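Much of what follows relies on a compact textual record of a protein's fold. With that in mind, consider the following protein and its fold in token form.
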Amino acid sequence: MHIASYMTPDDVVADLKANGKKQVLHELARRAAERFSIDENDVFEVLLERERLGTTGFGDGVALPHGKLAGLTGMHMLFARLANGIDYNAVDGRPVDLIFLLLTPEDAGADHLKALAKISRLLRDETVCAKIRGAENAEAVYSALLESEEE
């Protein structure tokens, strides 16, 4: 699985402004609806449902909200770097400023888990996160994600 197969620079938001977790999830749902022609409310609800099971903020300023949606025909990804870190109830209690959204079809099964593992490994690398945080714009963030994946 290669991120470039599921994302373009248009799927990256370099300086998302949000005041809290719910606002971030709303904004990601809105952008996913625009980018992938899916229902914004369905995306928001699946993300909220997943967060109720436990936070997707896995530490070091990173969150990986994800969900499976009926009607999707393939995997979809968005990446957002927040202008300011927010309280996301992350496992380490630190503010989150890097968010990778993953949406998959209901029947994705192992593909969903493989994608989560891949993204998690990528964003657990401090060097990768530093490059992303230092990137000037969405194109540079996208390049940092792909470059890091290839290393």
